[in-house]
Amino acid sequence: MSAHGDPIPMISRPCGALSGVAEVPGDKSISHRSLILGAMAVGETRITGLLEGQDVLDTARAMRSFGAEVTDHGGGDWSVHGVGVGGFAEPDHVIDCGNSGTGVRLIMGAMATSPITATFTGDASLNGRPMARVTDPLALFGARSVGRAGGRLPMTIVGAADPVPVRYEVPVPSAQVKSAVLLAGLNAPGQTMVIEKEATRDHTERMLAGFGADITVEDTDEGRVITLTGQPELKPQVIAVPRDPSSAAFPVCAALIVPGSDVLVPGIGLNPTRAGLFTTLQEMGADLTFENMREEGGEPVADLRARYSPDMKGIEVPPERAASMIDEYPVLSVVAANATGDTVMRGVKELRVKESDRIDAMATGLRANGVTVEDGPDWWTVTGMGAGQVPGGAVCASHLDHRIAMSFLILGMAAKAPVSVDDGGPIATSFPIFEPLMAGLGADLERT
Ligand code: S3P
């Protein structure tokens, strides 16, 4: 089943050169944070370029349930009338975050230090994902939670009436956990400190500073130490959301493996905590050029040009790069299958607890399409077959995971035989214009 409705089986046939301009939608991480921080500011935050994918729409609806006024002005322009830090109202119904781990975990953090109770649920994928990684630190603030076995949704959070600030070392490399703790820290008096051993995406820190919070980030021997002073008055912002590098990855990787392709992706966010895929692809020999590097809304942005690269070689992806490309391993494995030699990906245990077990989902589907893949608990290796040599021909399960569905459809564009997915519905969670955008570049996609 797709996230919100009947399954949408799809097929991707081998296609001719991809060319043109790929205007991918707004960044998902920044879109969620714009709505949530906008709801916690006093006054009106204006947002342009918001991702109107289902994940973000679910967060918009949730913010309304907590009392913020969220308005869609059309064409990606939105406004949020915030209720201020500590101003959330108690929702009178269950908060359904659909497929979105980011949405539910950040919202849990944002409400956990207010004297209100909220119950959260999601689709079958989200309801299978671990939430203790967030509820454990939220308990330190004084919040209580009751969920299903294994800390799964549906789950009720009883916010702390008298929250205390915390010092928390994040035990897994997770921007969602870090962000949940920082958002909870907003309504705790005094200083909340978060320490992460490996740097993860830092949009929350950047945006909190933009909204006027007192936040400092220090690189120390212990890791990145983030200190936030609680109970600020957040000032509404004007936010231009950059295009999502994680969505850009799909047309970029397609261009690298489809003969003759030349695709330009303008205005993508290139925050260094997000850009690991592009470094990896360049190390493999990909023809990528960054043009017109600039800063927009506190984030580095560039136009990225990708051209067909038939001579890519497999590499060992450094484990310390994993956090900066964690969502891109599925599509990297598709490129790896079209390179020569082995691509080894280590230190990627987190891939097993995403919207699906992404190592298992990709390994199974790649093998069905004739690619050799080995995997262990926190690593996997794809043996490249060379440009255009993947046999293809299989139907792959997308497991309610947008990035798995899109990755297999990209595989089909450069394989010898078409590749199908059982359900392309989840693509709408992050990249609702994937089909027309890829078709506009020359891809041959069809709903079957
Ligand atoms: C996200 C963090 C990452 C990433 C997700 C978005 C965020 O998850 O996979 O798509 O916006 O904070 P983890 O925090 O679980 O690594």
Structure, described:
The longest helix is centred in the N-terminal third of the chain and has 13 residues, at 28-40. Strands 22-23-1-24 form a 4-stranded mixed β-sheet. Strands 2-15-17-16 form a 4-stranded mixed β-sheet. It is of the alpha/beta class and 448 residues long. Helix 1 runs parallel beside helix 3, helix 1 (28-40) runs parallel beside helix 6 (203-210) and helix 9 (329-337) packs parallel to helix 11 (402-413). The protein has helices at residues 28-40, 54-65, 101-111, 132-141, 175-185, 203-210, 245-257, 276-284, 329-337, 358-368, 402-413, 434-441; strands at residues 10-13, 19-21, 42-48, 69-74, 77-83, 95-96, 117-121, 144-148, 152-158, 167-170, 191-196, 215-220, 223-229, 238-240, 262-269, 287-296, 299-307, 316-317, 340-346, 372-376, 379-385, 395-396, 419-421, 444-447. Strand 4 and strand 5 form a beta hairpin. The protein starts with 9 loop residues before the first strand and ends with a strand. The chain folds into 2 domains: 10-26 and 242-447, UDP-n-acetylglucosamine1-carboxyvinyl-transferase, Chain (Alpha-beta prism), CATH 3.65.10; 28-228, Enolpyruvate transferase domain (UDP-n-acetylglucosamine1-carboxyvinyl-transferase, Chain, Alpha-beta prism). Helix content is 28%, strand content 29%. It has 12 helices and 24 strands. It binds shikimate-3-phosphate. Shikimate-3-phosphate is lined by residues 29, 102, 174-176, 179, 201, 326-327, 350.
